[in-house]
Design goal:
Elements lengths: L1 E6 L5 H9 L3 E5 L6 E7 L2 E8 L11 H13 L3 E7 L3 H12 L5 E6 L1 H6 L2 E3 L1 H8 L3 E3 L8 H14 L10 H16 L8 H9 L3 H7 L3 H18 L3 H20 E3 L6 H9 L5 H18 L1 H29 L3 H19 L2 H17 L1 H14 L8 H6 L4 H6 L7 H11 L5 H14 L6 H21 L23 H33 L15 H9 L11 H9 L5 H12 L10 H8 L2 H13 L4 H11 L2 H31 L4 H18 L14
Parallel strand pairs: 1-4, 1-5, 5-6, 6-8
Antiparallel strand pairs: 2-3, 3-4, 7-9
Helix pairs in contact: 3-11, 5-11, 7-8, 7-10, 13-14, 13-16, 13-22, 14-15, 14-16, 15-23, 15-26, 16-23, 21-27, 21-28, 23-26, 24-25, 25-26, 28-30, 29-30, 30-31
Amino acid sequence: MKIALVGEPNTGKTSLFNLLTGSDQFVGNWPGVTVEQKRGYYQKNKEIELIDLPGIYSLSPYTAEEKVAQNYIIDEKPDLLLNIIDGSNLERNLYLTLQFIDLNLPMTIAVNMLDTMKKEGVQLDNHRLSNLLGVPVTNINAVNGKGIDHLMICAQKTAKEEQVPNRLEYDSRLEAAIQEVITLLQKEEVEHPRYYRWYALKLLERDETVKDRLELSNATQKEIDDIIKMLEMLFKDDIVSIIINERYACVEKIVKQCVYQTEKGTIWSERLDRLVTNRFLALPIFALVIWFVYFLSIQTIGTMGTDWLNDVVFGEWIPNGLDHLFQQWSVSPWLQSLVIDGIVAGVGSVLGFLPQLVMLFLCLAFLEDCGYMARIAYILDYFFRKIGLSGKSFIPMLISTGCGVPGIMSCRTIENEKERQMTIALTTFMPCSAKLAIIGLVAGAFFPNNSFVAPLTYFICFGVIILSGLLLKKTKYFQKDRSVFLMELPVYHWPTFKNLWRQTWHNSSAFVKKAGTIIFLCSMILWFTSNFNFMGQMVPEEDSILAIIGKAIAFIFAPLGFGDWKATVAVFVGLSAKENVVNTLGVLYHQTVNTDNGQELWTILRQVYTPLAGFSFLLFNLICAPCFAAIGAMKRELGSMRLAIHVILFQCGLAYVISFIVYQLGSVFLTGEWTLWSWIAIALCLVLIYLIIRKERKEQAVWEISL
């Protein structure tokens, strides 16, 4: 038995799917498109296959998600549609339900969000709604699982009995037109008569996908066009609006008979929205929230755990324990150095930031699950439109705070191609979990008592996105029509511990796995290349392979303040995985100091670099090209190696220019000394300002990317 879970976004559909399937599910892509596919089996009956279709607002195929849902339902013919609806937004959800009813397939309705309805003083008569629609209607709680056993009993019974919904009548003139089209379909002997009513409505809506599917004769299509013209003349409106209005009129009648206002609820969600989406207060509140998140993660709670891991676990327990063990076993000195100075120092320098990451992921999961992040997408839509994007681009950027790869892949939901490509180019500017380790390292080493540095990097990244968007918008390639951004603002609610833990564990475990694989391997490679020369001889670090390569290219970064070969090597090694920036510094500096004296990496960095150089180093690593995994995802999603190379060069060039300007002008501000580099930084500032403010020409773009 196949059961398809259908419904609008943010109705709890996926939460219900997770409860029903547990871990017995797999994720892939739907054939021919890049929309995520989730399938699984009901835990209590493995003969029931569950398919979590994408959240949609309509069965009209305007988006990839709607195409997937429509094609699956028509082609795969599930035994039952399990329609999850948000009880607090019943009228809007029933609009989609009516489209499912027209398919004439067995269906069961699960009403979720009853707690929100109760708070708003709204009561739903399930029995009355069930009688009107002709389908079972049951209440559930997709968070704690309440009511799902009864739901599945109803669903299985409905599917076995092939109980189809009641046919809902529209205006008599529209119904007559529908019957005329159905008669034409019967003459054409179109397959699947159960879909005739839905086919008729789609043909009246001029749905090109259904037209192509049915391959009707020209004569039949001409008759349908004549019917459409007649309807538009009778209703004095376009055909799409006619059908939409009729569906909503039907929904309104149903709601009046099934929904009761018991008392005026305190809609505190709307009151809170007046504050957090206020045109003057929204951005300051957002800045305060982000500051508090980073304050908890980098300065207080997260730092306590990081200090303990760095100082105690990876600073004393593991190195001392291994050293004692190696002495007992008489292990050779080079192998001791490989394990302690290479692997432990490298992996430990990265894993030491795990408590800060866990705290950050926990805070971001809370903000996302409670509904606040949806408001941020709405707020930022105004600013994103100025740079050729929309609020929908914020979703991939939010996902990128965990990892850039899924962030890039989530750009698939953006329909406008140029907007999608620009979002891919900009989304990796957001500080991912790997970059957070670099933020924690620089903030801890150079600004330990300043709680504003870490959140400042978050807003700098936003500033870089805005700046890059303004620059790319002026190129001929990214000139495009604006897209419309529509999104639902979910009702605020307290997230459950289970959901918070699931999201936090998912992101944190990925970080740990990377430390145990990529970082482990890179630590070994770094140790060998920093201890051996090209002849395979063990030499002092300054004569090693890594030192020779690093010294040859270190001059490139001298104007940025970190011309030391170790920092240079760290930047390039960071392309394998951004955590390797910290890992590399941990390995290279761990071998040059006496760790028995308790000197930590933070202390060493303060002795080698100035705070301004450290900040410049941080900016460059935040803005430059992402890791190879993200670059690979970028190439796949852009569909062009040439375009991907242009994006990478743009990111690296912008990182260099911004770090150069910050370091050179910062040096002037701190020392009062002007050099040739200072004047070049001024010139670069003027060039950037010119490129941003210069107006676009109608005939020709200001500057263009050749592809």
